[in-house]
Amino acid sequence: MQRSPAEGYQQASLSEQKVDGEDFIQTDVCPKAEDVILDLGCGTGELSAYLAELVGPEGMVTGVDPDKERIQLAKEGRSQIENLSFVEGSAINFPGIGAEVYDIIFSNYALHWMTNKQQVFNNMFESLKVGGKVAVQHMSYLPLFDYNAYVLLNPENAERIFRLFHFESKTKMERYCLSAGFDEIIRSFDTHCKGLVFETVQEFLEWQWSTTCGLFNPSLVTEERLKKYLAPYTDEDGKLSLDFRGTKHEKVTVCRLTAVKKDKKHL
Ligand SMILES: C[S@@+](CC[C@H](N)C(=O)[O-])C[C@H]1O[C@@H](n2cnc3c(N)ncnc32)[C@H](O)[C@@H]1O
Predict the structure, then answer these.
(1) Which of the listed residues 109, 121, 123 should we mutate to test ligand 1's pocket, taking the one with most ligand atoms within 8 A of CB?
(2) Closest CA relative to residue 147, chosen from 126, 125, 164, 123
(3) How far is CA 129 from the centre of its chain?
(4) pLDDT tens column, 160-169
(5) Which of 134, 230, 131 is nearest to 188 (CA)?
(6) At 30, which helix (H) or strand (E)?
(7) Whole-number percent of the chain with pLDDT over 70
(8) Could you give the strand order of the β-sheet that contains 102-108, starting from the edge strand earlier in sequence?
(9) How far apart are CA 132 and CA 82, in angstroms?
(10) Is 259 helix (H, G, I), strand (E, B) or coil?
(11) Residues with CB under 6 A from ligand 1
(12) CB distance 185 to 178 below 8 Å
């Protein structure tokens, strides 16, 4: 039976979103035992499950995502984990919204999928306890290798794929964060992606398909289109390198923002 885009994402995210997400969690999110965490835009839940391990049995993690199928996959095989739950919802509709119940609101590679980011930051602020932390990892631009993949390999679908994303700069995100009421930005910086290396063309095309929720269609990728796309990534000996972590081709970066809610919003 053919895989769904959500199943494809579960597999594909292991080499990119999960790698960068775990690194962010270890260096900047730093959850403590007993923390209550919201994972906003949790996808298929790999990082929510990792956070649940870190907060231990006295902590609690809730993963929220609007994609029904991804939430279904997130739940599968994890029903025994008592401090972890998954709920279909969104940045404007999640458990505990506005109720100051979370120690940490974490969001990995999801903010650039959301519109009205000021509202999203307001909701996160109002849902955190005083002393709570927001920790967001997001893309501020569409990497060139993705842009070219859509335009050269799937020109029929490129416009629709572009409409999936809502990129905004690091500075703008900081502004939303401060206007929402966060008193102190702990860190806000760009860092190189640590995943983003593809062993085969097939793996790369599947990644494009699943990360665009099935809009990128590998069957539209003709030999001729592929040849043109791959040319910059092929050396004189014909050796292909689809490595976007910081090679000569492209150094893809991602933004990390952490901030603390020291007090209720001063009106
Ligand atoms: C690239 S995936 C990241 C998933 C997961 N955080 C990870 O690291 O693997 C982006 C996710 O954001 C979700 N998303 C899109 N719009 C959203 C919204 N308005 N509120 C919450 N999540 C949203 C998508 O359904 C998708 O699962």
Answers:
(1) 109
(2) 164
(3) 23
(4) 999 999 999 9
(5) 134
(6) none
(7) 97
(8) 84-88, 60-65, 36-40, 102-108, 128-138, 253-260, 184-192
(9) 23
(10) strand
(11) 13, 17, 21, 40-43, 47, 65-67, 70, 90-91, 108-110, 113-114
(12) yes
User: Tokens 């905004």 correspond to what residue?
Assistant: 168
Are 92 and 63 a contacting pair, CB within 8 Å? no
Determine the distance separating the centroid of ligand 1 and the alpha carbon of 172, expressed in angstroms: 20
C-alpha Rg value of the chain to the nearest Å: 19
pTM: 0.95
> In 3-state terms, what secondary structure has residue 64?
strand
The residue written with tokens 């794929």 in the block is: 161
Rounded CA separation 105/146 (Å): 28
Tokens 């999936």 found at: 164
Task: Give the whole-angstrom CA distance, residue 190 versus residue 196.
Answer: 16
For residue 15, what pLDDT is reported? 77
Residue 260 has a CB neighbour count (10 Å cut-off) of 16
Among candidate residues 124, 238, 225, the one with its CA nearest the CA of residue 181: 124
